[in-house]
Amino acid sequence: MLSKFVSAQPMNFKLKGLKGPWIKFGLLFLLVLIGIRIGGGLLRGRSSQTEFLTESVEQKTVPIYITANGTVNPVRSINLSPKSSGLVETLLVEEGNRVAKGQVIAIMDDANLQGELVQMQGQLAQQEANLDRLVAGERSEDIASAEAALAEAIANLQELQNGNRTEDIAQASARLEQAQATLQQREATWSRYQELYTAGAISQEELEQKRTDRDVARAQVNETQEALTLQTTGTRPEQIRQAEARVEQQRQTLTALRTGSRVEDIDQAQGQIQAAQGTLQTVQTRIQDTQVTAPFDGVISQIYAEIGSFVSPSTSGGGGIDASSSSILMLSSSRNQVWVNLPESKIANIQLGQPVTFKADAFPGETFRGEVEHIASQAAVSQNVTSFEVKVAIDEQSAEQLKIGMNVEAQFEVGNLEQALLVPNAAVVKRTDGEGVNVLKRDGEPQIQPIQTGVTSGSQTEIVEGLDGDEQVLISPPPEQRRSGGFAFPPRPTE
């Protein structure tokens, strides 16, 4: 090629006045320039090898990690609400306050319950007084009164049984005659007053008064006539039976007073006292339940209700849309955890007590530590992905910085990879049909080498197949791969 170039030069130059040595000198100068240009190109081609950034394949034992995203959550969190619906009368805490188990944090209105309490206390006192009376027995005054009533009933019965005396009949006849005389007198007066009224001597009122007097006298005659008839006829059998019943009733009353209270009556009174005590205790418990207390040590993370708000009992375990109407506040435990969902394929590598490190977006560059505290016994399926929830306990130093709701990246140390071949992550070139690395050959030229990768540990990737361990790999692809946008694997040897 060079000879062709040189032989062609005299055809392109017309040198007037130059002969002999000048022509030879000019040709030599052109040859020198062409040689410098070609040699410079070759030197530049060889010097491009110095632009390759390489790193040796490393063989060492590295820890294996499982990485997953998670969030900081309290170990326990509940919405606190009263046991009965009502109005919030007093609120004793604010958001961020720490409370102890059993501490009163809110008080509900109990005005209606206080009225029921007084009523139940009165009923219990009444039942207790009744029992005391039954146990102590009847008073002597009550017994004496019962004895007198029995004696009176017996005397009345005897009188009815003996019949009416002659003296009684005579007295009844005399009363009848007297009543009849009075009636005759008043009828005469009535007749005389009628004449006077007709003559205009008296008023209508005076006439009516005399007629009333006559009617009263006539009624007295009828009454005394009936009394005389009863005295003459004698006592009827039904009257005697009624008197006998009264005597028996009074006798039983007296016997009961002398005997004292029956065991059955005392037992019944004691049962009534127990019932009253139970009702009173129920009211007292309801009053006590108006004081909402903390079920465990924790922090007030959110308040939903204010004084005067109407709230109802709630069974939910966390905040929600209806929390403001069914709860007073949210209480979270003082201790937090990191909650992570791990795929089913990785859960077998997780054990209780296993150390975990994690990083938080809020604290770049800082590393926190903990250990596995809980592994869910049942998987959860979301969008056709099966996973298990793992809860990581946070050490005390980390817990002071991490807040509820922070996002973290957790790393679970699951073992070591013994004597693994490692290359920088940047050296691995990926395509849809495989992965490879650019290996520097003995002549200084790069060559793509297909590989099979394993785990990634920090900034390095494990090479399972494709390298021997003594190679130099390129950190960045050569220029031809950059221009072509990738690489092609060398064809497999034919058998």
Describe this entry's structure for a reader:
With 495 residues, the chain is an alpha+beta fold. Among the domains are: 2-45; 51-61 and 417-484, conserved putative lor/sdh protein from methanococcus maripaludis s2 fold, CATH 2.40.420; 65-73 and 333-416, Efflux pump adaptor protein, beta barrel domain (Elongation Factor Tu (Ef-tu), domain 3, Beta Barrel); 76-109 and 290-332, RNA polymerase II/Efflux pump adaptor protein, barrel-sandwich hybrid domain (OB fold (Dihydrolipoamide Acetyltransferase, E2P)), CATH 2.40.50; 114-137 and 262-288. It has helices at 2-12, 21-47, 111-136, 140-162, 166-199, 204-233, 237-259, 263-289, 323-326, 396-399, 479-484, and strands at residues 54-56, 58-74, 77-80, 86-91, 98-99, 104-108, 291-293, 298-303, 310-311, 329-333, 336-343, 355-360, 368-375, 380-382, 385-394, 407-424, 429-431, 434-440, 446-457, 460-465, 472-474. A six-stranded antiparallel barrel has the order 2-11-15-13-12-16. A hairpin with a 2-residue loop joins strand 17 and strand 18. Helix 3 (111-136) packs antiparallel against helix 8 (263-289), helix 4 (140-162) packs antiparallel against helix 7 (237-259) and helix 5 (166-199) runs antiparallel to helix 6. The longest helix has 34 residues, at 166-199. The protein is rod-shaped, with a radius of gyration of 61 Å. Mean pLDDT is 80; it is low at 1-18 and 38-50.
